[in-house]
Amino acid sequence: MFLPRSTSTLPLGEPTASIARMAKVSLSSVAAHCDRLLRTDQFTDYEGAVNGLQMQNRGQVSRIAAAVDATLATIGLAIGQAADLLIVHHGLFWNPTQPWTGKRYEMLRVLIERNLAVYSSHLPLDAHPRLGNNARLCAALGLRNLKPFFFHKGQFLGYQSASEIRREELAKRLRSVLRAEPVVLPGGPPACSRIGVVTGGAGQELRVAAEEGVDTFITGEGAHWTFGVAEELGLNVFYGGHYATETFGVKALAAHLSQKFQIPWVFLDHPSGL
Questions:
Q1: What is the rounded CA–CA span in Å between residue 31 and residue 38?
Q2: Residue range 127-245, CATH number
Q3: Helix (H) or strand (E) segment spanning residue 89
Q4: In the chain, pLDDT over 70 holds for what percent of residues?
Q5: What SS3 state is found at 146?
Q6: Is the Cβ–Cβ distance between 157 and 137 less than 8 Å?
Q7: What does residue 116 show for φ and ψ, rounded to 5 degrees?
Q8: Checking CA distances to 213, which of 13, 31, 130, 207 falls within 20 to 30 Å?
Q9: Residue-by-residue DSSP string for 149-176
């Protein structure tokens, strides 16, 4: 199997040499805690998405890796970091997964042979009020006075903030937080006053955002045709990148698990550029 060069980031002050001295905890305990914390059973996700433990290992966890996507590349990075649990936002299962041949077979074979479990959380991790992608991005941007926003699939997934920020200043904050230049559709007022945040691929839902009363919408990505819709709606839209806006949740969840179970964690940065 191809093992790409790791671009992972160890938590500050976490020496690699300490791995062997860390305790092991049961995989079932970690997965059950995640399910309770994220309220996994209360979410209806997209068809094909599986939230929770997607791949088990031999039953113990001594080191956690976190990544946005479960791919052959991030699996290789996790193995390179001696992880036995990979926490992801976009999991292994989205479409029919049979037959298990070619690269699909290679992925599953390596997971089993290298004893790597996979836990995935999609919409539950988007929506979590403390560890979720949307909550963490709002905090990083300094947005206050948060209220639930963007009702979708029976839940509010994002947050809106009553904050007075110039459009140029908000773009600057996004650039700093995401370390990438956001795409700005300046369809709304130069001074943003009600800002909605939904990470990932919510660009096709500009009308939903506008109907909930925001004048500015921050998400990950959107199609070309949304430019005209943003102008029609009088809506500022910021596309920060699907990947870049969804690194926050897996980092926060892995850090929480590390603290609770006293096991080290590592973030595997494998950006798509999208």
A1: 11
A2: 3.40.1390.30
A3: strand 85-90
A4: 92
A5: strand
A6: no
A7: -110, 115
A8: 130
A9: EEEETTEEEEEEEEEEEEHHHHHHHHHH
Q: In angstroms, rounded to a whole number, what is the distance separating the alpha carbons of residues 136 and 2?
A: 33
- Between 11 and 233, the more confident residue is 233
Q: Give the span between the Cα atoms of 178 and 58, in whole angstroms.
A: 36
Q: How far apart are CA 144 and CA 162, in angstroms?
A: 7
> Whole-angstrom Cα distance, residue 67 to residue 71?
9
pLDDT digits (tens, 9 = 90+) for 85-117: 999 999 998 877 778 899 989 999 999 999 999
Distance of alpha carbon 24 from alpha carbon 67, whole angstroms: 21
Residues 6+ apart with CB under 8 A from 105: none
Q: What is the CATH number of domain 16-125+247-267?
A: 3.40.1390.30
Domain boundaries, the chain: 16-125+247-267, 127-245
Q: What is the pLDDT of residues 25-35, one digit of tens each?
A: 999 999 999 99
